[in-house]
Amino acid sequence: MITNKSCIIRLSRYKNALYRLRALGFVKVFSDNLADAIGVLPSQVRKDFSLFGISGNKRGGYQVDSLIEKLNTILGKEQTQEVIIAGLGNIGNALMKYKGFEKEGLKISACFDIDSTKYSRDSDIPVLPLEEMKEFVRAKRIKIGVIAVPDIAAQSVLDMMTACGIKGVLNFAPLRLRASGDIVVNNVNLELELENVIYFVNAQEKTKVS
Amino acid sequence: MITNKSCIIRLSRYKNALYRLRALGFVKVFSDNLADAIGVLPSQVRKDFSLFGISGNKRGGYQVDSLIEKLNTILGKEQTQEVIIAGLGNIGNALMKYKGFEKEGLKISACFDIDSTKYSRDSDIPVLPLEEMKEFVRAKRIKIGVIAVPDIAAQSVLDMMTACGIKGVLNFAPLRLRASGDIVVNNVNLELELENVIYFVNAQEKTKVS
DNA sequence: CCTGTTTTGTGAAATAAGTAACAAAAAACT
DNA sequence: AGTTTTTTGTTACTTATTTCACAAAACAGG
Ligand SMILES: NC(=O)c1ccc[n+]([C@@H]2O[C@H](COP(=O)([O-])OP(=O)(O)OC[C@H]3O[C@@H](n4cnc5c(N)ncnc54)[C@H](O)[C@@H]3O)[C@@H](O)[C@H]2O)c1
Ligand SMILES: NC(=O)c1ccc[n+]([C@@H]2O[C@H](COP(=O)([O-])OP(=O)(O)OC[C@H]3O[C@@H](n4cnc5c(N)ncnc54)[C@H](O)[C@@H]3O)[C@@H](O)[C@H]2O)c1
């Protein structure tokens, strides 16, 4: 099992690039097409593929269709992945309303909140009380959850998701969650991402002067 | 100039942990307090500090106040950073309404959109036509921008921001932007983050079985 | 069918990042 | 005052990731 996160991110990017290339009429691609598309070296592309046992044809490159298929298999995108969201606030809403997930094979199946004014059992994406999470997740065998609740509630929501049988979580709360068992937690911390930009801007300014 | 992104991210985390520790009454901390707080090894903490010339006292650890100050200087957080947002859709709204930025020294100064129904010149955070970006950014000497427009508009917005004198961008559009000049672009791709979770969940399931 | 060209696939080399180890400084204790 | 303990700061080591380089395969053109 390859545990290099940036490598997996690249696979996703290759896949996205391939869809674009296919739309442009490409039937086969070379490692340097993909490299250009996502901004890495051709040898990185081939190395990544080699790691996952993906092989093309010497001098013939890779068949776009079959490559997309292989990447989707590795990335677990053979069938639509159902996802639940906990916390229908700013971030939760943004994700729920986002149209782009569908074409990526991601489906927001339901949202859960503690605020009863937000419940809407019959809408396209139902908004349900937290208490119904376990039932819902088990019935639909959902494995992926998003945490978009206030910081102080995040740990308890993670624990609940773990108890429901969720296996992987994307967490927006800016704190370190203690994951029990074998649940995968991926953190997105937007403040940190902004601070990161600020650091690099300042750092660049300083080196420019000197 | 240190260009290791994860290192900078750790500095931000140290800083956040230090605020929490200070609130708890800590006046000095040891490398292993910080290590515990953010989940790395004490030697990593000391190495990071060493890289930036931060030093403490042998057997006495680090003074919390002065450490926070040094980190804030490195991270460019001495004064409030003003930020503009392009695209007041799902993500743009979520960011604009988020209360947490203020206490991090980040201020959303304005949003820019092409949809005239969204304009509100007099609200707390003004929402202005795109055309006014240059004037606004120059007048306020703003250096940081967020791109939260639809994918196809993202490149043109980046170009515009570059022309306005913006130096760093946090981009939510899931495509590779061509950055001209010395502008820093940090991409947040939420689909990719979700796909990443899905990969690791599947990978873990497979290794569990075998 | 042979020769030249292109492009893959992978092992080796280089670079980067993280971990360990330990001397030196400073405080605490006797 | 001297000994022990603690904790830093840095160098050396280890591991991870990226880049290079080149043989082998595949096709193209004569
Ligand atoms: N909005 C942003 O731009 C932004 C930026 C950075 C970080 N974050 C982080 O993302 C998380 C969500 O932020 P937000 O702005 O969307 O918050 P929010 O306050 O807008 O929404 C939180 C939602 O969670 C619900 N909630 C509260 N407790 C709950 C619980 N125990 N179980 C289920 N639902 C519960 C609330 O009813 C509310 O609907 C926070 O941790 C925040 O720090 C958000
Ligand atoms: N919402 C999400 O959860 C989510 C998830 C993943 C990725 N993204 C990405 O984030 C970006 C924004 O997504 P969203 O859901 O907020 O989009 P959205 O469609 O809700 O909002 C886009 C906003 O940008 C404005 N706009 C359009 N063209 C513009 C231009 N040239 N200049 C300025 N404003 C312009 C629109 O009027 C609208 O207000 C997209 O690239 C999307 O792919 C969003």
Associated small molecules? nicotinamide-adenine-dinucleotide
The oligomeric state of the chains shown is homodimer
Mean pLDDT of chain A: 96
Q: How many β strands of chain A by DSSP? A: 8
CATH architectural grouping of the largest domain in chain A: 3-Layer(aba) Sandwich
Q: Low-confidence parts of chain A lasting 5 or more residues at pLDDT below 50? A: none
Q: Greatest contact pair?
A: A-B, 62 and 63 residues
Number of helices of chain A: 8
Say which CATH homologous superfamily of the largest domain in chain A is assigned: NAD(P)-binding Rossmann-like Domain
- Radius of gyration computed on alpha carbons of chain A: 20 Å
**Fraction in helix of chain A:** 40-55%
CATH-defined fold name of the largest domain in chain A: Rossmann fold
- The geometry of chain A reads as globular
End-to-end Cα distance of chain A: 45 Å
Largest sheet of chain A: 6 strands, parallel
Blueprint of the fold:
2 copies of one chain form a homodimer.
Chain A: H1 5-23, E1 28-29, H2 31-38, H3 42-51, E2 62-63, H4 64-74, E3 81-86, H5 90-97, E4 106-113, E5 127-129, H6 133-140, E6 144-147, H7 151-164, E7 168-171, E8 184-187, H8 190-209
Parallel strand pairs in A: 3-4, 3-6, 4-5, 6-7, 7-8
Antiparallel strand pairs in A: 1-2
The complex binds nicotinamide-adenine-dinucleotide (2 copies).
One nicotinamide-adenine-dinucleotide sits between chains A (86-92, 112-115, 130, 148-151, 153-154, 157, 172-174, 190-191) and B (94-95, 98, 100).
The structure holds a DNA duplex (30 and 30 nucleotides).
